[in-house]
Amino acid sequence: MSAQRPEGRPFDAPGRPKRESSLGEAVAKRPEGRPFDAPGRPKRESSPGPLVPGSWLGVLGGGQLGRMFCQAAQAMGYRVAVLDPDPDSPAGTIADWHLAAGYDDADALRAFAERCPAVTTEFENVPAASLEALAQWSRVAPGARQVAVAQDRLVEKATLRGLGVAVVPYTEVRSVADLDAAPETHFPGILKLARLGYDGKGQARVASREEARAAFAQLGGKPCVLEAFMADLRLEVSVVVARQADGSMQCFPTAHNEHREGILFHCAVPVAADPAIDAALAEAQASARRIADGLGYEGVMCVEFFIDGSGGLRVNEIAPRPHNSGHYTIDACSVSQFEQQARVLAGLPLGQPELLAPAVMINILGDQWFDALGQPREPDWAAVLAVPGTRLHLYGKAEPRRGRKMGHVTCVAADAETVRQRAREALQALRMEWDRPW
Question: How, if at all, do strands 359-365 and 263-269 pair?
Answer without folding.
Answer: antiparallel
